From TrEMBL, chain A:
It is found in: Mitochondrion matrix. Residues 142-153 have a biased composition (Basic and acidic residues). GO terms for cellular component: cytosol; mitochondrial matrix. This is Dihydrolipoamide acetyltransferase component of pyruvate dehydrogenase complex. The branched-chain alpha-keto dehydrogenase complex catalyzes the overall conversion of alpha-keto acids to acyl-CoA and CO(2). It contains multiple copies of three enzymatic components: branched-chain alpha-keto acid decarboxylase (E1), lipoamide acyltransferase (E2) and lipoamide dehydrogenase (E3). Within this complex, the catalytic function of this enzyme is to accept, and to transfer to coenzyme A, acyl groups that are generated by the branched-chain alpha-keto acid decarboxylase component. GO terms for molecular function: acetyltransferase activity; dihydrolipoamide branched chain acyltransferase activity; lipoic acid binding. It comes from the Eukaryota. Keywords: Acetylation, Acyltransferase, Lipoyl, Mitochondrion, Phosphoprotein, Transferase, Transit peptide. CDD domains: lipoyl_domain. Its cofactor is (R)-lipoate. It comes from Vidua chalybeata (Village indigobird).
TrEMBL record, chain B:
This is Lipoyl amidotransferase LIPT1, mitochondrial. The lineage of its organism: Eukaryota, Metazoa, Chordata, Craniata, Vertebrata. It is an enzyme of class 2 (transferase). It holds the Pfam family LplA-B_cat. Belongs to the LplA family.
């Protein structure tokens, strides 16, 4: 014993002073002794070869399939290092040490051998090391008391660094909720706990153990229910720190959008907005909706807006002759759709020959394809005009940006119930929607836009007019 | 949510089953659980959850589950190489990547899945498969079934009725296998055939095998009976009650964090992005105005994204500026038909408005997208 003490004293001298003063010296001596006994010659800054441990079933070699770390990365004990595969079994190799990765002995698809070095890790001596045996669920031995603590009959894992942090702040690990893998207590958990000390009681861990020790068997069935009642399910733990700024490259679809929008801004836009009284149209749609449903089609307001847009076309037609692309007779009205990737605009083809019902059918088809991510190139090209029903998400007035090579775009706000005066001067309930047009001022002037908008508005406010004029 | 899962599990009518409330109070030493869901992602998430959160030292687990039509690829496989993605999308068959190794399988309600959870030390695949064979023989003694060295179960010495895969973590491990009861063999063979040519990759390839349903051997067999028989054998071997606990993979109070796991399994980054690096070298045969063009395409795809792309077009077929725009935009974008479609159609907006140009562009892009 004397000899051991002498050894530990002499090695303490070599450790940098700042680490020594943080440690409770008695604890240091105790655990350090044990470490010296078990792990030979591991001191600060030493590079250890982490060998590939036994996979089981007599397997001697595996293929390295993925690295989770690279040279220079810091790892903590239990962090995943790599994924290897052997004969239909995929194995996650986790680190036994805290430290910095200094060397990867294999590249992807190389064959790695059990018992041979996998990575070299530079151990940070202040952080300590796990025993050389594989970390398994055995009852804690005395020297591991600092590393593992029994909480409510379950083992709680915490790396020596986390344990030290808890000690420094006089926190009992048993009171801290572990959110790491296997309920491991992470540094963030300690800091969260500190932050909450003055605030409300920390809610019990949402990760209830499903298999409690027998003595707790009665208590546990009740506990999850209680937890459900008490907490509004805080499954994701609150973020204690502000995130770091991240720079992400703009790729693929986003790049294309950048190009389109930059081109769009070269167009001199002017805006024109108006208010449409949709009371009569709302009524009409209510009547037609069940009929459409019988035919298996969902009828929204969009088919009306689209068909009427076409009807109002004559106003703008003579000006469209100035634009090459609009010489064709097909009016393909684009409908802006919000998807996971962002904005896509499939169009309904040849609106001029479609009935409102036909348009509704086509919209349904495009919507289901759009949400499944299966729209084809023909659905997404050839649009001559776009309508954006942003009102379904929210908003009243907007300033939409024209999608080249089109010459105008309309954004429809939400339908609101507002008080308005009728022809008799009485205040009535009206269903009001705002529309915001943007047009290319090189081709369209304000008066033309106003006349177009008025015509569009008149059809929608008096649906009976549609019967007279719509082809 | 409960009603939905009840609808899904109308086939669970056995008297021995009990609702989840008793999940943690029965069985010492081992536990048999069965999923009420047929959603492949939810069920795979349950496997992840048990692997990450349960203490298997005290209790081993047998998990029984079935999925509505889905193709499940192994951890390190290439979906483009393993199945007909176009057909999958057309037929609305889900694609999932599991965390265990091994090859590609087709799941439908006629196929049952068994997962044996143990500690790392007690990981023993052969024992598990022998258990299954024993259960089958107890049910139908005349069945000629045996376990091979490759951890397959063969019927009549030639037809594969079960495939195996495993996942080993730091302290726990699981071994899961399929069992073909009454799966749709026609759909199985058509979706597991990839039309892809010219794909070079180090991804784990699947080993195709002749398959047969147990139902074909003995029409009186049902998935229910097989599940029961296996559960019974497991119960006997682990000296526990023959008692199956139902669990709902959407129950966040029982399985905290499960919805995050389910979501992660559905992300593009996991399903496609985890594909090991591969390269494509193929030839597009495009018919344009009475002539057939042979266009060589070479692409390198890493993490599911196009790292490098080269299209060998006849000179001036597309204006050079436009061609370089296309290549620049494709580089870094996902090797995905949806992403590419939106990308190329958006790019088309800033092209000169020329019908000829548009039709060439559309032709080329449609062919490129067909590769994905």
């Amino acid at each position: 014993v004397c000899i051991h003490r002498v050894r530990s004293c002499s090695s303490i001298r070599f450790i940098k002073s700042k680490y020594v003063c943080v440690f409770d010296k008695s604890a240091l001596k105790f655990s350090h002794q044990q470490r010296l006994l078990r792990t030979s010659a591991v001191s600060c800054g030493q590079i250890v070869q982490f060998k590939l441990s036994d996979i089981g079933e007599g397997i001697t070699e595996v293929t390295v399939k993925e690295w989770y770390i690279k040279e220079g990365d810091s790892v903590s004990q239990f962090d995943s290092i790599c994924e290897v595969q052997s004969d239909k079994a995929s194995v996650t190799i986790t680190s036994r040490y805290d430290g910095v990765i200094r060397k990867l002995h294999y590249s992807i698809d190389d064959i790695a051998f059990v018992g041979k070095p996998l990575v070299d890790i530079e151990i940070d001596a202040s952080k300590g090391v796990a025993s050389e045996e594989d970390v398994v669920e055995t009852p804690p031995m005395s020297h591991e008391e600092h590393t593992h603590q029994e909480i409510k009959g379950h083992k709680t894992l915490a790396t020596p660094a986390v344990r030290r942090l808890a000690m420094e702040n006089n926190i009992k690990l048993s009171e801290v909720v572990g959110t790491g893998k296997d309920n491991r207590i992470l540094k963030e958990d300690i800091l969260n706990y500190l932050a909450k000390q003055t605030g409300a009681i920390l809610p019990p861990s949402p990760k209830a153990e499903i298999v409690p020790p027998q003595r707790k068997a009665e208590a546990v069935p009740a506990a999850p229910k209680d937890k459900a009642r008490k907490i509004p399910v805080p499954i994701s733990r609150p973020i204690a720190f502000a995130g770091k700024d991240k720079t992400e490259p703009v790729t693929g679809f986003q790049k294309a959008m950048v190009k389109t929008m930059s081109a769009a801004l070269k167009i001199p836009h002017f805006g024109y907005s108006d208010e449409i009284d949709l009371t009569q149209l709302v009524q009409l749609r209510e009547e037609l909706k069940p009929l459409a449903e019988i035919r298996g089609v969902k009828l929204s307001f969009m088919p009306f807006f689209i068909k009427v847009r076409h009807a109002a076309e004559p106003c703008v037609e003579y000006l469209q002759r100035f634009c090459q692309n609009l010489l064709n007779a097909s009016h393909n009205i684009g409908v802006a759709m919000d998807t996971e990737q962002g904005l896509i605009v499939p169009n309904v083809k040849n609106v001029q020959v479609c009935s409102v019902f036909d348009i509704a059918v086509e919209l349904n088809r495009l919507q289901s394809l759009g949400s499944a991510g299966q729209l084809g190139t023909s659905d997404l090209t050839g649009g001559t005009f776009t309508l954006s029903n942003i009102g379904t998400i929210g908003g009243t007035y907007a300033k939409p940006v024209i999608l080249p090579p089109e010459v105008a775009i309309g954004a429809l706000g939400k339908i609101q119930v507002l008080p308005r005066f009728n022809s008799k001067g009485e205040v009535v309930k009206a269903q009001i929607m705002n529309v915001s047009w943007s047009a290319d001022h090189r081709i369209i002037d304000g008066a033309t836009m106003a006349r177009f908008s008025n015509l569009w508005k008149s059809y929608l406010e008096n649906p009976a007019l549609m019967l007279l004029d719509l082809k | 949510m409960v009603l939905q899962s009840l609808k899904n599990c109308l086939w669970l009518s056995c008297v021995l089953r009990t609702p989840k409330a008793c999940f943690w109070s029965t069985a010492i030493g081992a536990l048999i659980i069965q999923s009420v869901s047929n959603d492949v992602y939810q069920n795979l998430a349950v496997e992840d959850w048990i692997h990450d959160h349960m203490d298997l030292e005290k209790q081993q687990v047998l998990f029984l589950w079935r999925n509505s039509p889905a193709v499940v690829i192994g951890r390190h496989q290439n979906p483009w190489q393993e199945c007909n993605l176009r057909l999958l999308r057309q037929k609305n068959i889900k694609l999932a990547r599991r965390r265990s190794g091994g090859g590609t399988v087709y799941h439908d309600l006629g196929n049952i899945n068994l997962t044996f959870f143990t500690t790392r030390k007690k990981y023993e695949r052969m024992e598990n498969l022998k258990l299954v064979v024993k259960a089958l023989k107890a049910l139908r003694p005349q069945l000629d079934v045996h376990v091979t060295d490759r951890y397959d179960i063969l019927l009549d010495r030639q037809y594969k009725i079960s495939g195996t895969a495993a996942k080993l973590g730091r302290a726990s491990a699981y071994h899961h296998c399929t069992l073909l009861c009454n799966a749709d063999k026609f759909v199985l063979s058509s979706v597991l055939k990839s039309p892809f040519k010219g794909l070079k990759s180090n991804a784990t390839p699947s080993v195709p095998a002749l398959v047969k349903n147990l139902f074909e051997e003995d029409p009186s067999l049902t998935s229910e009976m097989l599940l029961d028989a296996i559960a019974k054998e497991y119960a006997v071997q682990h000296q526990i009650d023959h008692h199956i606990t139902l669990i709902n993979p959407t129950d966040e109070t029982l399985l905290p964090g499960i919805s995050n796991k389910t979501k992660e399994l559905q992300t593009w980054e996991w399903v496609y992005g985890k594909t090991p690096k591969f390269s494509i070298s193929t030839c597009l045969n495009m018919t344009y105005k009475d002539s057939v063009l042979d266009v060589k395409v070479n692409m390198d795809v890493k993490h599911g994204r196009i790292e490098a792309c080269n299209i060998d077009l006849p000179e001036q077929w597309l204006p050079p500026g436009l061609y370089s725009e296309l290549v620049k935009s494709l580089t870094g974008s996902k090797f995905c038909p949806n992403e590419t479609t939106t990308l190329v159609t958006t790019l088309l907006r800033v092209c000169p408005q020329d019908d000829e140009l548009h039709s060439r562009w559309s032709l080329l892009c449609e062919n490129m997208i067909r590769l994905m």
